[in-house]
């Protein structure tokens, strides 16, 4: 399972029961939280997200609609008895704010937070099963996008064919990496007899808040799914530019440039009650678009 | 109109669609906000509170469930174009937190915030129409309760009787204060001919978070309505004491000691799904109790 669950799809002011930005990415047994606007902990409860499974939180920038819910979520995790450590990747100043808030409340969390200030760009997490990297966007204050990539062994074992050969299970990982097997007696099992090429690994780019900024398409080139903000419709392209935001059409143009398979758009301005126009506008530029709707989980590929 | 609208009635962790603490007190044309847990700005929208009418905010203490929603509310007020100044009464450290949060967002609010650190006890606001005072409660960190008192002129003009005398309208305020009127020609209109005693002024005590603490009954003696926390039921009296909270029965005992007319109880622990027992327990000690339910406005007297 690789999917994105939207917890908040609105820009700065909550409206029409749309909430400030937050989304949970599920990759097999891992949950990643991207941004954490006010009310995220309530949305997590509403949509039955297993908060104990969240071990990584990424905050794109320090505008309130992207992080005001974080301290509440952390505090509640503590009250609920969490002991597992949590990795928090965020702009450096957030650490000072959180520490101050914990201090004035005389609160000591029962779990540790490994705070990682965001570098300009690069890999943040690298495990055998996935990686997460960050890249800069163009916003009024420093802001980062993130890419989650699953990692797959290049080859998969053919369960039927492998039964014809006496390859010990301990060697399976090396088979997946493409090695041939040689038995003690010198018998060779060629890799291509018992494996086939794995599918290509999937990836998701969360592009946070940004002006229309073509370098994003380069960073996120070829991702399976891209989320891009679309705060305004095209008639407000000037306002979008002034406020360091993007129109639905521009978001679609970035998706096309990036050659992604699927685009999600969100971060809608509170001035819009209805969202249909966002979809119509984006589809005219890039075919495979969805509105990022709260409570919905969007699958990444396959 | 003098009333209390409950926006959040739950303790630390939001649960069962109950929200962390916040309440709006309406006194004629004034709105006062007492505490501002996470999600308060959404609750303000949900219950159609006119946020532009809020000129005074009081924060009882710096546990997150009482203030994490404040920065979001202030930011949204700014985005909505507020220019009227706002008075904020809170523990001193809150100013540092708010300033830091505004700074990292490069946000300059379009209205000014007059920050008033809370004194140990005493009058915070004193106008011809109302006053607000604070008093200490007994909590794990410094915590304050607040009392709003309406101010009334001692006498009211009898609209029928006044028509029999030629008293200029400009003198009415002095009549309300009990003065006799003497005309240019030396004719006396005795105060008691044209006025009658006003009703006694109403008052509301918001007692915030606290252990069972009898001095509260002294500070809030004789208030028309008292809100007192009731985090637990009596069987958890030990836990209440350990965690600096109160049971429903203890809250009722304080109300009885204070000789208030009406008690509201709230700040229910997330361990309770149903609240009926809180009412039953409190009523056994003090008859006129209501559960503080979200979205409900409770009138103060008359």
Write the layout of secondary structure elements.
Two copies of one chain form a homodimer.
Chain A: E1 2-8, E2 22-27, E3 30-36, H1 40-46, E4 54-58, H2 70-79, E5 86-90, H3 93-104, E6 113-117, E7 122-126, E8 130-136, E9 144-150, E10 155-157, H4 159-162, H5 172-176, E11 181-182, E12 188-189, H6 191-194, E13 195-197, E14 203-206, H7 215-219, E15 225-229, H8 237-242, H9 248-258, E16 262-266, H10 276-283, E17 289-291, E18 297-299
Parallel strand pairs in A: 3-4, 4-5, 5-6, 14-15, 15-16, 16-17
Antiparallel strand pairs in A: 1-2, 1-18, 2-3, 7-8, 8-9, 9-14, 10-13, 11-12
Can you walk me through this structure?
Chain A is of the alpha/beta class. Chain A folds into 2 domains: 2-152 and 202-299, Ribonuclease Z/Hydroxyacylglutathione hydrolase-like (Metallo-beta-lactamase, Chain A, 4-Layer Sandwich); 155-196, no CATH class. The first copy, chain A, is 24% helix and 28% strand. The first copy, chain A, is globular, with a radius of gyration of 22 Å. The mean pLDDT of chain A is 96. Chain A binds chain B through residues 12-15, 19-20, 38-39, 41-42, 45, 62-65, 68-69, 71-72, 75-76, 79-80, 91, 93-94, 96-97, 100-101, 104-107, 140-141, and chain B through 12-15, 19-20, 38-39, 41-42, 45, 62-65, 68-69, 71-72, 75-76, 79-80, 91, 93-94, 96-97, 100-101, 104-107, 140-141.
């Amino acid at each position: 399972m690789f999917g994105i669950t939207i917890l908040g799809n609105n820009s700065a002011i909550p409206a029409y029961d749309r909430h400030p930005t937050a989304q949970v990415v599920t990759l097999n047994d891992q949950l990643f939280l991207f941004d954490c606007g006010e009310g995220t902990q309530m949305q997590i409860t509403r949509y039955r997200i297993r908060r104990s499974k969240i071990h990584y939180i990424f905050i794109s920038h320090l505008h309130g609609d992207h992080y005001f819910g974080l301290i509440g979520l952390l505090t509640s995790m503590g009250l609920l008895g969490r002991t597992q450590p949590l990795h928090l990747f965020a702009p450096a100043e957030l650490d000072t704010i959180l520490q101050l808030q914990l201090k004035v409340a005389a609160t000591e969390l029962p779990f540790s937070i490994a705070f990682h200030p965001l570098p300009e760009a690069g890999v943040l997490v690298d495990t055998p099963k996935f990686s997460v990297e960050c890249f800069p966007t163009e916003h009024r204050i420093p802001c980062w996008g993130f890419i989650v990539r699953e990692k797959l062994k290049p080859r998969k074992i053919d369960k039927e064919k492998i039964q014809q050969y006496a390859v010990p299970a301990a060697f399976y990982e090396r088979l997946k990496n493409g090695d041939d097997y040689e038995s003690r007696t010198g018998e060779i099992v060629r890799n291509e007899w018992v494996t086939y090429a794995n599918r290509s690994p999937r990836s998701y780019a969360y592009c946070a808040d940004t002006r229309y900024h073509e370098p994003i398409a380069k960073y996120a080139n070829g991702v399976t799914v891209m989320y891009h903000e679309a705060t305004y419709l095209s008639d407000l392209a000037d306002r979008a530019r002034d406020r360091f935001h993007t129109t639905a059409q521009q978001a679609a143009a970035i998706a096309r440039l990036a050659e992604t398979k699927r685009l999600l758009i969100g971060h809608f301005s509170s001035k819009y009650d209805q969202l249909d126009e966002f979809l119509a506008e984006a589809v005219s530029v890039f075919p495979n678009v969805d509105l990022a709707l709260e409570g919905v989980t969007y699958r990444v590929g396959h």
